[in-house]
Amino acid sequence: MDLALLLALMAIVIPVLLHLLTRASKPRPGTAKLPPGSLGLPVIGQSLDLLRAMRANTAEQWIQARVDRYGPVSKLSLFGIPTVLLTGSKGNKFLFFNPSLASQQPQSAQRIIGERNILELMGADHKRVRGALLEFLKPDMLRLYVGKIDDEVRRHLDENWAGRRTVTVMPLMKKLTFDIISLLLFGLEGGAVRDGLNRDFDHVMDGMWSVPVDLPFTAFRRSLKASASARRVLAGITRETKAKLQRGEASRNSDLIACLLSLTDDSGAPLLSEEEIVDNAMLSLIAGHDTSSILLTFLIRHLANDPDTLAAMVHEHEEVAKSKGDGEALTWEDLMKLKLTWRAAQEMLRLVPPVLGTFRRATEDLEFDGYLIPKGWQVMWMAPTTHKDGSIFPEPDKFNPSRFENQAASVVPQCSFVAFGGGPRICVGMEFARIETLVAMHYLVRRFRWKLCCKENTFVRDPAPSPLHGLPIELEPKAASP
């Protein structure tokens, strides 16, 4: 696209957006009023302000400043779309459980992942695809895969941690979680195909939150190109797995693709199309490795300066190890005993949620707390508004895993801890993330001691949290452990 054509398109698009923003900002006769706030500059709105705050790690203060100024409900404009920001557990509950609010991804993410992924679907299609994914991710299925995850973690530590004086945690955690998820989703063992897919996904992530203009040398172009490459690989794996199922060389329990291909409707027809399988495999790869790697990285970061929690965690894991034979893999039953470790992980997710917040789209005019949410507007929730609320979590900036010992509604109101979202669209991979985290931490805390290399213990969001320099640490091996 040459410059003249781009300018011509902008001359057409910008006036249309201005008209839509102006029209949307006017209350409709006979309805509730719009929330307080400002839509800001045309098209740009508050997008740059939010992105700057995320990159400066001041997003929580940015959100709180809006709440202090406008209250728990306010209007703004993000990424060219009028938006209502809802805060607090009441707002979260309204957003998570309202069937008239559809999932809303940035256009860039939609084009990169595919239009038939579960985040884009509504109604019967969403229920059908979600049910298919849950068939693979339900506990009865996941217990079959603990041994495979155990093998991957031990192999990873032997190859990438053992014998090293220093390591950089974030890229290694991304590699570990990608290897685990690609093994369980597609049955991919280590090798050229898995390594190539991993490289593709590094670039897929580059343009997930970018201006969706397909021009040379842009992050969006790189992501589209990497997405196309990854999709070709996944489509090939899908066809190969289908052939293996027909020959009896694979079963429904082999991996996610085999499971999805095995599902049929009442008439015996495939429950999911190949496009839906590939699109949701793309999404599962992104969600299944990126968020877990962030959790593991920030747990390691915190434990370096929290000897009491680390000692309690080591004790818990050593107690489990005592019941195992040399080299014996962890089991589902072993993981159920690691309660302190998961409470620490939940507390880490509360303090540093991998996803700061997401959007929904109003499919009709809605009213919340006396305010109008017009059809077509975005509705946004942000995790820190409840995660850092001192009335819900006393001393909210303090790391305190014990606060998750009792999560009764009388202690933590519904939709207050929202690291995995909530309602009918709560993360389908929540239980998988727990297993992956517990297995990884079991071998990390028993095999190594570590300390941070950087005196500054900071991180930024772009849009996911990333610690300074990827979190380099100094390693010290412990006495040999099985």
Automatic annotation (TrEMBL):
Protein name as it appears in the record: Cytochrome P450 716B1
Signal sequence range: 1-24
SUPFAM superfamilies linked to this entry: Cytochrome P450
CDD domains: CYP90-like
Cofactors that this protein relies on: heme
Any Pfam family: p450
Species whose genome carries this gene: Panicum virgatum
Taxonomy of the source species: Eukaryota, Viridiplantae, Streptophyta, Embryophyta, Tracheophyta
Keyword annotations from UniProtKB, A to Z: Heme, Iron, Metal-binding, Monooxygenase, Oxidoreductase, Signal
Family: Belongs to the cytochrome P450 family.
Single GO BP term: sterol metabolic process
Database matches in InterPro entries: Cyt_P450, Cyt_P450_B, Cyt_P450_CS, Cyt_P450_sf
Molecular function as annotated in GO: heme binding; iron ion binding; monooxygenase activity; oxidoreductase activity, acting on paired donors, with incorporation or reduction of molecular oxygen
